[in-house]
Design a protein that fits this description.
This protein is an alpha/beta fold and 259 residues long. The chain is 44% helix and 15% strand. The protein has eight helices and seven strands; from the N terminus they run βαβαβαβαβαβαβαα. The strands form two sheets. Strands 2-1-3-4 form a four-stranded parallel β-sheet, sandwiched between helices. A three-stranded parallel β-sheet has the order 6-5-7, sandwiched between helices. Helix 1 links the parallel strand 1 and strand 2.
Length: 259
């Protein structure tokens, strides 16, 4: 399966046609990441067969985003970051690559925070062995993510942790693999000091990779799998695409109505 080369009119957006959904992944040296992202895009295509769905990477994997956008020519596209919060990639890298392309593009919000993201996190925890009934008071969760120096990225992760805590009814502490604190071991020590004896790790990663593996290795109890191809992730990508088009349409209508 390839998501890089247009093979028919249905595969690529043309002027006046349906804007393509370009899913922007970070890229990874772990081959499982690319296969996972491709499988996720297949789920999106199954949900909406008529929508042109493309893949572009910020780095490390092909197709790179500039190449994907160049293949669109002057067509329209909505770029949806396969990223779980704001940060440098969302604020600078993706917009800069979009601005340098011939395509007419709009950049959607990252996937988190959002209730659909929490649906996927919750489901992965249950698959790992989290109780299906209300958890005892000695249970808690560390929400492990990649990390960023951007305070808005950390705010997004904290918001996702709060949404997951409300869903589970137990404390959820965000922790990071790099660039931010607390680390996963530090978060585990904090929860242990508070009397929690069953501490699960929720992997807030889109696909397998070095950070996900590193965080899982530190889990004192169960650890969930990366979010991967969970159906809620496919629905969330489409939600961000639709949300961007609706917002853009509303702005145009207001502009036309302004004297």
């Amino acid at each position: 399966m390839t998501a890089t080369t247009p093979t028919s009119n249905r595969d690529t957006a043309t002027p006046g046609g349906t804007p393509a959904l370009v899913v922007v992944a970070h890229g990874s040296r772990d081959p499982r990441a690319l296969s996972t992202v491709r499988a996720l895009l297949d789920r999106v295509r199954t949900l909406r067969p008529a929508l042109p769905v493309r893949l572009g990477h910020i780095e490390l994997n092909e197709p790179l985003l500039p190449d994907t956008l160049a293949a669109l020519g002057g067509g329209e596209a909505v770029l949806v970051p396969l990223l779980l919060g704001r940060g440098y990639h969302v604020k600078r890298d993706i917009p800069d690559m979009a601005a340098a392309s011939p395509a007419r593009t709009r950049v959607a919000a990252p996937l988190g925070p959002h209730p659909l993201l929490v649906d996927a996190l919750h489901a992965r925890l249950k698959e790992a062995g989290w109780p299906t009934r209300p958890a005892p008071p000695d249970h808690a969760v560390v929400l492990a993510s990649a990390g960023s120096r951007d305070p808005e990225s950390r705010a997004d992760t904290s918001r996702t942790a709060a949404l997951l805590a409300a869903r589970l009814g137990v404390p959820v502490v965000p922790a990071y693999a790099s660039a931010a604190t607390p680390t996963v071991p530090e978060a585990i020590r904090t929860l242990t000091a508070r009397g929690h004896r069953r501490i699960a790790l929720a992997s807030c990663f889109t696909a397998p990779g070095r950070f996900a593996t590193q965080c899982t290795a530190a889990a004192p109890w169960i650890a969930s799998a990366p979010l991967g191809t969970h159906p809620a992730m496919a629905r969330l990508l489409l939600h961000r695409y639709d949300e961007t088009l609706m917002t853009d349409g509303a702005m145009k209508r207001r502009a036309l109505a302004t004297p």
